[in-house]
Amino acid sequence: MGGSLNAAGSEITRNTATAGSVSPSGVGGGMVVTAQASTVFTDSILANNLADTEGHDFWADDASVSLCDIPAETVIYEADGNAQYIDGWYTDASDKRYTLPSME
Fold this sequence. Notes:
Layout: E1 4-8, E2 11-13, E3 16-17, E4 31-34, E5 38-42, E6 45-47, E7 50-51, E8 58-61, E9 64-66, E10 76-77, E11 84-85
Parallel strand pairs: 1-5, 2-6, 3-7, 4-8, 5-9
Antiparallel strand pairs: 10-11
């Protein structure tokens, strides 16, 4: 049975998971949650992290993750240089990497 983490008022930003470094598989740029652990984020920012394989901001395997809503127009998505506000959580799996819709 895994442990638990309750993160309130936390900020996890600008981290990178590169395959072959700290994260051998390149997953979970901001956080990795495994082994039946549970994580709850409230009033927190988990954004603008990068991962080579999947899960830019977080990656969970056999775990429970509860994410807070993203307050409107408070956090800017930096990876594409378009300075758009983050408006929610999106799938970022290895076979379905998240990218912003085209601005054209």
